[in-house]
Amino acid sequence: MNKKLGLAVAGAVMAFASTANAGITIPAGDWTVDIGGNVNAYYTHTSYSGDAGTVGAARQSQNVISTGLLPSAIGIGAKTRQNDLDVAVQFTFFTGVNANGADNLNGGTNGGNGGLGYNSLNIRQAFASFGDASWGTVKFGRDLGVFGSDAILSDMTLLGVGSGAGGANSSTLGRIGSGYLYADWVGQIQYQTPNWNGFQVTAALREGLGQQDNSNLGYDGKATYDFAANDVTGRVWVGGIFQKIQTATTAQIATVNAAGVKEYDAKAWEIGAKAAYQGAELVGYYYNGQNMDSGIGTFLNTASSTSLTETDNSGGYVQATYKLPGVGTKLGASWGTSLIKTPGAATEAEREAWIVGAYHPLTKSVNLVAEYNHLNMTASDKKESEAKTVSLGAILFF
């Protein structure tokens, strides 16, 4: 994968960054407008085995045409310099290529893949920022969360599918839930320090998830250090997240009655590192927390729950990639796992995935992708199942 496409991949996940990604650049008076995005589609074949209850349906296999971990997207950004401040704004619209069953014109049912199906539009980004290299940047609006962002940005399956193929969603899971927790897209007010010789700190006040009465906000942050020595480049990072989550009785949920609402801490910390040398790159990541995992790597949301069983969560992944000289094809392999420990359960619930992939730059904008993902799932009642996915497709950035 060439340098321009690699930067485009990271930019697509970060919603084309707080300053636009210089896809299609249009001067507009004092402003510079940038338009960029991606379109991707994959054929995926997933075969299932083991206990159907842990798979989600009593089926043997699925064949689907869908988007991968990155939904197709178009981002519109603008930036300028005013009163000694760098000012920017970004809107990014994400969608899938497959018909989402919940959006069909048959009343929104999920009865099957019928005619007149259409996919959904998800505006994951809507934020503005201002700042200066001398004192930092303030961002306000909706954007990717701080905690877990480096883990997903370092995942090689950003260009592909990973786990979670076969559903009626606008994207797959990549390695979400089998190596890291999803950073998610949230409303936030964020501050990022200047870059001090590679060291930078980012902190955010974010919307509270899992709230009955909206009395609590969330907090997350990270510290990163980027280094370069001779032909070796890389990054080391540490991060954390904390917020309160709540449960209540059914009556309290219906009336939004704060009396008797129970609160629990949801928190986690992370550490990661990656290093690259002459086409080879290694990534290592680990996280640990409490009450953070819904079971597939997304934040534990208890807004409609009447009780909560507290859990311990941990996981991580290792990844190695190598870009073939001259050809440019990137070959990669990774292993990762996510564990959920519930008091009194027969065993830890686990989602473990092995992934191998090949990513070939057909042009500076088009990448051909082939992946194989082997996901092992163990439920807390010891039921086990497997999902094996082969995916073939392409992704184009502009």
Briefly say what this structure is.
The longest helix has 11 residues, at 3-13.
Structural commentary:
- The longest helix is centred in the first third of the chain and has 11 residues, at 3-13.
- The chain has helices at 3-13, 52-55, 149-153, 250-255, and strands at 24-28, 31-50, 61-66, 72-82, 85-95, 121-132, 136-144, 185-192, 199-206, 218-229, 232-247, 262-277, 280-290, 312-323, 330-341, 349-361, 366-378, 384-397.
- The chain contains four helices and 18 strands.
- The model is unreliable at 1-21 and 103-110 (pLDDT under 50).
- The chain is globular, with a radius of gyration of 21 Å.
Described by its quaternary structure, the protein is single chain
Number of helices: 4
CATH structural architecture: Beta Barrel
Radius of gyration: 21 Å
CATH uppermost class: Mainly Beta
What's the topology here?
Layout: H1 3-13, E1 24-28, E2 31-50, H2 52-55, E3 61-66, E4 72-82, E5 85-95, E6 121-132, E7 136-144, H3 149-153, E8 185-192, E9 199-206, E10 218-229, E11 232-247, H4 250-255, E12 262-277, E13 280-290, E14 312-323, E15 330-341, E16 349-361, E17 366-378, E18 384-397
Antiparallel strand pairs: 1-2, 2-3, 2-4, 2-18, 4-5, 5-6, 6-7, 7-8, 8-9, 9-10, 10-11, 11-12, 12-13, 13-14, 14-15, 15-16, 16-17, 17-18
Descriptive terms for the model:
single chain; mainly beta; Porin; 16-stranded antiparallel beta barrel
